[in-house]
């Protein structure tokens, strides 16, 4: 690790952690309906107008089944809207590049991707999606899918706090307040900052420019009958990029306006934008830990979970940076020099020169740890171990720190499992925050934890044994297997980042991937809501001498151990066939 790497990681974590308490406190005020420093006066009339238009009463409480039904209906309508806009975009306005209708299987995959906050992209945005589709379908769902995750988390927290009641809040109110008071104001400010740094925000047509020097492509083979014609002009794609970029990062979505995502200079033009985007990705998932502590009346609980999330993230981010800085070991074998002598900056393959291996590894670890899926470099070009760590972060069930809202309610599932196991070890009925954790809660938590890895491994197995799956692999052997494993893991954990090298725009991958994203999202949403409903109905048991302290370093250590063991037992055999096998081949000098 160079000094630059330590400073980059340290500065990022310092800024984010300094913002955790004020942002987390503000989030608590939003969901506890407290004054919001003038924002409630600014957006209050709009909020009340939305409720009147939709026939919603703020004081109408929902039980967990009603809350879940509202969530499913809302997301299903969003799916239909995104699918329809894609299929009709050829005849809709705001289509300056004349994009045609998106094919059915791709439209299905994209609709499933954006309503689930996955943002997996089997398409190039600048050549497939019109401005209208990017804004009305994709950007809107970036807000709404993020707000859905935030609402589910708040409902679970209310379940832990309330006693002998069936109400856990109102889904429609929680989603509305999440958008109006949290996501929208921050995104407006963030978008303006991005525009100031050179990110486009326009509805003008694509720009056609003449090249300073005409480009002639090299002949495919010697002795070609005729030389290719010189290319004298270029089309530069622009559009309403800044607005999508802001919510893409803040809402831990990750879907890029351009195919190159955050490696594209129009999405991430400077070192400042790179740092601000990393900060935006981490901000709300980590701030929610303090929100949790405030809402349950014990901020120590929030700090303990925050510590676990940060430790997990750094435990994978730092090795990723080290391996990418070390360069490619094959160079030592074939050039008789140390990799660092041939690659003094590290492994530059697939990296943007303005960012380099350090900022690429930090950004991509941040994105994969938070279910964002945005990348500023090509993960397929990382060293085998360098690619292993982002993959492993996704396989942690997106809890380090995970997506906006979804990361914390996913972590709380592991907390309940930890409390249950610890309770069995000391011979007491497990309790968490004064609520007894019984068989029903453990069944629901187990479903939420086990469904994503089961889908990832099942999808990988199917893709590896049928012709339609194998046909998409661009690289043979262990690397090709890793490409499939990464794709299925990313979709099953609603991350959305791609290892690339895999042709995902086929009916097989579009349909299977879409189904995996839908199942994974809602089978990790419904169990926490069921737990919230069950806990809200229970009485609060006073803490006694045998009550397990869930805010101590010991508990954090046990929690981390359980998370790592679950992931290791689930994914290690697959990892041994993919990135670990490829790394051993690299050390042996084999491509």
Strand composition percent: under 5%
- How many separate domains? 1
Count of runs of 4 or more consecutive helical residues: 22
> Which sequence of strands runs across the widest sheet?
1-2
Backbone structural class:
mainly alpha
Q: Determine the mean pLDDT.
A: 92
| H/E element sequence | HHHHHHHEEHHHHHHHHEEHHHHHHH
Molecular shape: globular
Secondary structure tally: strands: 4
Instruction: Return Rg in Å.
Output: 24 Å
Q: Low-confidence parts lasting 5 or more residues at pLDDT below 50?
A: none
Helix content: 55-70%
Distance between the termini: 26 Å
Main beta-sheet annotation:
2 strands, antiparallel
Question: What attributes does this structure have?
Answer:
22 helices, two-stranded antiparallel sheet, 591 residues, two-stranded antiparallel ribbon, mainly alpha
Give a concise summary.
The protein contains 22 helices and four strands. Helix 7 packs across helix 8. The protein is globular.
Task: Outline the structure in words.
With 591 residues, the protein is mostly helical. It has helices at residues 3-31, 39-54, 64-88, 104-115, 125-128, 131-161, 171-196, 241-250, 271-296, 299-326, 330-335, 339-342, 356-369, 384-395, 406-426, 439-465, 467-470, 477-492, 507-522, 526-536, 553-577, 579-587, and strands at 207-215, 231-236, 431-432, 435-436. The protein has one domain. 63% of the residues lie in helices and 3% in strands. The strands form 2 sheets. Strands 1-2 form a two-stranded antiparallel sheet. It has a two-stranded antiparallel sheet with strand order 3-4. It is globular. 51% of the residues are buried.
